Amino acid sequence: MTSQSQTDSINAQPTTGHKIAAELIGTFALVLFGVGAALMSGGDYVATGLSFGLVVLVMAAAMAHVSGGHFNPAVTFGAAVGGRLPWSQVPVYWLSQLLGGILAGAVLFFLMQGFEAYDVDEVGLGQNGFGDQAASGYAVGQAFVLETLMTLMFLWIILAVTDRRARATGIVAPAAIGMALAIIHFASMGATGTSVNPARSIGPALFAGTDAMAQLWLFVAAPLLGAAIAGFSYAFLFGKEPLEVDPLA
């Protein structure tokens, strides 16, 4: 017969519905506040980079105990490749993250209409870009390598600070991950606008026009490639963590 304490323990485990809510809300917040800061500040480098980093720090601290706090299809993919997340959960995470990103894109598009002079064709919606669709004119080949490399570094950091051997409990892991994302923005935002997250790119692009949509392939493929490399290489480079309940699962 199951004791009351055992029943409470089982009931305390996050359900699939709880994980969907956490990933949807977390990704929504990431796109809303990160891309929103870029739009409202006129593309201020420091404000935008810090906004992306801080929102990940806050939302990861708030939601990590529910879903692991991915808010990014590339993070989910890297976690699955690295054995931190069952593959059966990947579609649920991805759908939640994409929906959160798209909802945030829709909200941002609506909010920007409050500016009388706003024209999405002229100003955009904080979408990522390269070549003649980006203010930087950054070349496609370098853009692909940049996004792959930045995502690779991001995933190595995430896998490291959530490694059980690191004992990065409490706020330490979310803070490291959030600051890593801010640093990544400082190092790449002037080239592509910084994606390292397909959901962040897809959400705004859906409302920014066909040109933005045509460039999405890079901001999906490159982050997933970088995440896959990180997932495959982490244990080889740094060793395997002990077999216990994983904080990313």
Automatic annotation (TrEMBL):
Membrane topology: Multi-pass membrane protein
Gene Ontology CC entries for this record: plasma membrane
Keyword vocabulary terms for this entry: Cell membrane, Membrane, Transmembrane, Transmembrane helix, Transport
TM ranges: 20-39, 45-64, 92-115, 135-159, 171-196, 216-237
Keyword set includes Transmembrane helix: yes
GO molecular function annotation: water channel activity
UniProt xrefs under InterPro entries: Aquaporin-like, Aquaporin_transptr, MIP, MIP_CS
Subcellular location: Cell membrane
Annotated family: Belongs to the MIP/aquaporin (TC 1.A.8) family.
Protein name from the UniProt record: Aquaporin Z
